[in-house]
Amino acid sequence: MTDSIRVSVVQLDEYGPWTVEPAPRRETDLQALQARLYADFADFVGRSDGYAFFNRFDNMLGIANDVDTDEYERFQERVRNRYPVTVSVGVGERETPVGAVEAASRQLQVAGSAQDPDRLEVLSAGPTTDSAGPITVGHFDIVGVTESFTDTEHAAAAGLEIQQSMVALKRRLLAEYDSIAQFVGGDNMIAVCPQLSEDAFGDIVDHVYDRTGVEYQVGIGSGATAHVAGGRAKRALEHCRETGTRVHEAVTARQQADD
Amino acid sequence: MTDSIRVSVVQLDEYGPWTVEPAPRRETDLQALQARLYADFADFVGRSDGYAFFNRFDNMLGIANDVDTDEYERFQERVRNRYPVTVSVGVGERETPVGAVEAASRQLQVAGSAQDPDRLEVLSAGPTTDSAGPITVGHFDIVGVTESFTDTEHAAAAGLEIQQSMVALKRRLLAEYDSIAQFVGGDNMIAVCPQLSEDAFGDIVDHVYDRTGVEYQVGIGSGATAHVAGGRAKRALEHCRETGTRVHEAVTARQQADD
Amino acid sequence: MTDSIRVSVVQLDEYGPWTVEPAPRRETDLQALQARLYADFADFVGRSDGYAFFNRFDNMLGIANDVDTDEYERFQERVRNRYPVTVSVGVGERETPVGAVEAASRQLQVAGSAQDPDRLEVLSAGPTTDSAGPITVGHFDIVGVTESFTDTEHAAAAGLEIQQSMVALKRRLLAEYDSIAQFVGGDNMIAVCPQLSEDAFGDIVDHVYDRTGVEYQVGIGSGATAHVAGGRAKRALEHCRETGTRVHEAVTARQQADD
Amino acid sequence: MTDSIRVSVVQLDEYGPWTVEPAPRRETDLQALQARLYADFADFVGRSDGYAFFNRFDNMLGIANDVDTDEYERFQERVRNRYPVTVSVGVGERETPVGAVEAASRQLQVAGSAQDPDRLEVLSAGPTTDSAGPITVGHFDIVGVTESFTDTEHAAAAGLEIQQSMVALKRRLLAEYDSIAQFVGGDNMIAVCPQLSEDAFGDIVDHVYDRTGVEYQVGIGSGATAHVAGGRAKRALEHCRETGTRVHEAVTARQQADD
Fold this sequence. Notes:
Four copies of one chain form a homotetramer. With 259 residues, chain A is of the alpha+beta class. Chain A has two domains: 5-125, Alpha-Beta Plaits (2-Layer Sandwich), CATH 3.30.70; 135-258, 2-Layer Sandwich (Alpha-Beta Plaits), CATH 3.30.70. Chain A is 47% helix and 22% strand. Chain A has nine helices and ten strands. The first copy, chain A, has helices spanning 15-20, 27-46, 71-82, 97-111, 145-150, 155-177, 198-212, 226-243, 253-258, and strands at residues 5-12, 51-53, 59-63, 87-94, 123-125, 135-142, 180-183, 188-193, 216-223, 247-249. In chain A, the strands form two sheets. A five-stranded mixed beta sheet of chain A has the order 2-3-1-4-5. In chain A, helix 6 (155-177) packs across helix 7 (198-212). Chains in contact: A-B, A-C, A-D, B-C, B-D, C-D. Chains C and D meet through helix 1, helix 2, helix 4, helix 6 and helix 8 of C and helix 2, helix 4, helix 6 and helix 8 of D.
C-alpha cells in the first residue's frame, strides 16, 4: 500500500470584488467574517478528525482523509445559508501533502478564475482512494517563548520575530520535504508531512536556528487521521518540554498507524 | 497638538497550559476558539471605529482611539461569559504605533507573566489623552495577485510567497517607520503608521520589490479613527487598481482629519 | 419492521448555579450563550440530517436517527472546548417521539439531578437499533400571518397571539398524538410525529382554530431522517400556500421512506 | 420628569420568501441563522446596557434606552456584512413598554410590508428624548423547578407545562400592565414594566398560579438601563430563593434610579 493524503482547497467565490462593492466594506467586518468562516471550516473537518489551515483565509486548506467529496456539499450549503458569500472546493489526493495541494488547486484552476463571476460553488475532485493515510504531523513550538518574547518584548516585535522564523520553517518544509505548514497561534506551527525520520526533523530545526536564531522543538506523530497523528505529536511535544529534548517522535506511532 | 495613537494588547490568560490540560485539546477546537475570539474582538473595537489585528491570536492588538480603558471591562466580561478562557488587557498611548504597542505591552508585563496563574483578567492602562489621533493607514495589496498566484500556483506555494513578502513589508514598516502591520487575508496588508509622506510609502514598496520580487500597491488615508483612515486608504487603493498608480494618498485626508 | 425514532436530550450541567455565581451574570451574555450553543447543536445534528429543538435552551432536543451515541462525545468535547459550560446527553429510541423523549430524559434523571455538582458530562443511552426511522414531520404555519399580524399588530401583541396558538397546537400534538413540536421562528411550528393520517392533521388544525381562532395550514412529509421528512413537509406546505389547501401530504413520502 | 422607555423592533427583510427560494432551505441552517442573529443583537444592545428579546426571531425587540437611532445603522451594516439577510429597524419611545413597542412597530408598518421586496434596511424612529428611563424589570422563575419538572418529567412535557404558564404570565403582563415579557431559557421570564408596586407583582404571580397551578417568584429592580434594573431584579430574586419570599423588590432601586 502506498501512503496518500487527501487535501481540500476552499476558495471564497469572487471575494475580492465583494469586499469593495458597492463601496469598501468595514475592515473589522471582513476580518470577523473570514475568522468565523475559518472557525466553521475547522469545526467541519474536525468532526471527521481532519485539520484546517487558514492559509490566506480566502483560500483555506483542509487535511481530511475521512471527508468524502460529497460531504463538502454540506459545507457549501451551510456557508450559503449562513454567510453573504459562497465557496468553491477542490479536492486532491496524492502521496505527499504538497502533491495533494497541487492536485486540489488544479481542480479549481481548471474550473475558472477565482474572480470569474460564473465560477460559483464549484465542487471538483481528482481521483481519490478508499485508503488515504497514514499522515505524519510535526507540532513545533519555540523553546522558552514566554521568557524570550512574550514577557520581554513588545507584542508587535515579538510577533514579527516569531513570524519570520515561521516563514523560514515553512519554506524549508515546503521546498525540501513536500510538506505544508501553518502557524496556529502563539508560537505554534503545525506541519503535515510525508513519512520523515527524526533526523530529518532535527535538520529542519537546525536549519531554522541557523537562519534566524530562533530555537524550535518538535513533537512528531503519525496516524490514520490528522487528529490522531496530531494528538500523538502534541504528546510528543509535551515530552520535549519536560525533558529538554528538541525532537521527539511518539515511538510506536507509525506501527500503530499501520494497523 | 501632538498626534497620538491608542493601542490595546489583549492577551489570553494562561492559555498555553489550558491547551494541554488535562490532555492536549483537539487542534481544530483550539483554532476555532482563537478565530472566534478574534472575530469578537474585531466586532468589539469595530463598534467604536477601531481596528483589530490578530497578531499571534493569543496576543491580539486593538487600534482604538475611541475606546476608553473602562470599556474593555465589558469585553473582558463578555469573554468570561462566553468562552472557557479569560483575557488581560493592556492599553498604551504614544506618538507612534510602535510606541503605543510598547506602552500597552509594558502594562501587562509589569503585572506578571502571561503564564502566571495569578495574573488573570488584568486591565491596566498607561497615560491616555482625550485627543488621540489622527491615524494614518496604509492598505497594501499585490499587483495582479489573482493572475500571478491564485490561478497559477498551488495554494500552499502561493500562500508562502505572499507571506514572505508580507514579512519583508512588515519588517520594513516596523524597523524604519515605527509602524505596525497585519496580514488581513488574501493579499492584503494593513499598516497603521505615524504621518508618512507618499514618498516614504513609495520607498517601502520599492524595498519589498527589491528584496522579494513581489510588487505591492498602497492606498493611504488619514482620519480621526482607524475606520475613517482605513476607509480612505481603501478608496485610494481602488484608485491604484484603476489607474496603475503604485502609491496613492487620499488627497485631503490629513486636512480633513485635522478638522 | 416497527418504526422507531431516536431522540437526544442535551442538558447544560449545573447551569442555574453558574448563571448567578459569583454574581448574577449579564442577561444578554446568557441569552447570547444559549442561542449560540443551540446554533451549534443545530449544526451538529444537521450534519447528519437531524433536527434540533431549543425547547428550554438549557434542555434541548435532538431528533437524529443517524447520530450514534458515541458521536455525541464529539459534541460534548466541542462544547467543553468552546464554552464556559458543559453538557450532559441522554439518548432514547422508541416507537413514538414522546416515548423517545421520555427514554432519553430518563437516562439523565437516573444519572443524577441537573443541579448535582457531580453529574457532569454524562453520556447515557437506552437501547437503540440500527434501523431507526422513518420519521413523519408536520410543518405548520399561520394562514396570512403577514397581513393578519406582522403588518397590522404591534410586535409584542402579534408575538403573544401567535405563541398562544402555538401552545395550543403543541399541547394537542403531545397529548393526543405522542408528538413533539417546536416553534421555529416567525409563524412556523415543526412537529415530529408517529405515522399520522392527513385526517388526523386536519383534526389538529381544526382543534387549534376552534380554541384560538388562529388558522394553521400544514405540510406533511415522511422519510428516513428528519431532514428528508422535513424537506418534503416544507414542499407540501408550499403546495398549501399556492392552492389554499389547509393540509397536504407529500404523496409518495411514506412509500419512498420505506425504500 | 415623565418616565419613558425606548424600544426597537428588528425585522428580517423578506425573510419568509428567502427561506424557500430557490428551494426550501435546510431547517437546521435556518434555526442556526436565527439564533446567531439573535445572539449578535443581544451583544449589540448589551454593549449599551440594553436587553434583547427574541420574540419571534424574525421580529426581535431591543430595550435600549442608551442606543441612539443612528447606532442601529452600525448593526444593520454588521448584519449585511455577516449574514445572507438584512434587517429593518423601527424605534419608538413612550411611557410604557407596550406603548413603545407599538410606536416602534408603527415605524416599520408605515414603511411597507415585511414582505415588500422594496422595503429593505429601513431605519425609522419616532420621537425620542434624551432622558429615557428609568426602567422596571421583573425577573420571574418557577419555585422548585428542578425538583418539580426537570428531574421528574420528560423534557417535552416539562417544556410544555412551563411554556403554558409563561404564556399566561405574558398575557397578564401585556393585557393589564402594559408590560412586555420574554422567556429567556430554563424557567426564567423577564418582564419590562412601567413602575409597578410589589402588590401588583404579587397579583400577577397569584393570577398565574390560579390559572395554571405553576408557582412563580419574582425579583424586581429599577434603574436607568435594562441591565441595571435587571441586575437588581436578579439579586432580588436571589433573595426570594434564599428566604422563600415570592415577591421582592430591591429596596432602594427606584430612589437610586432617580439619581
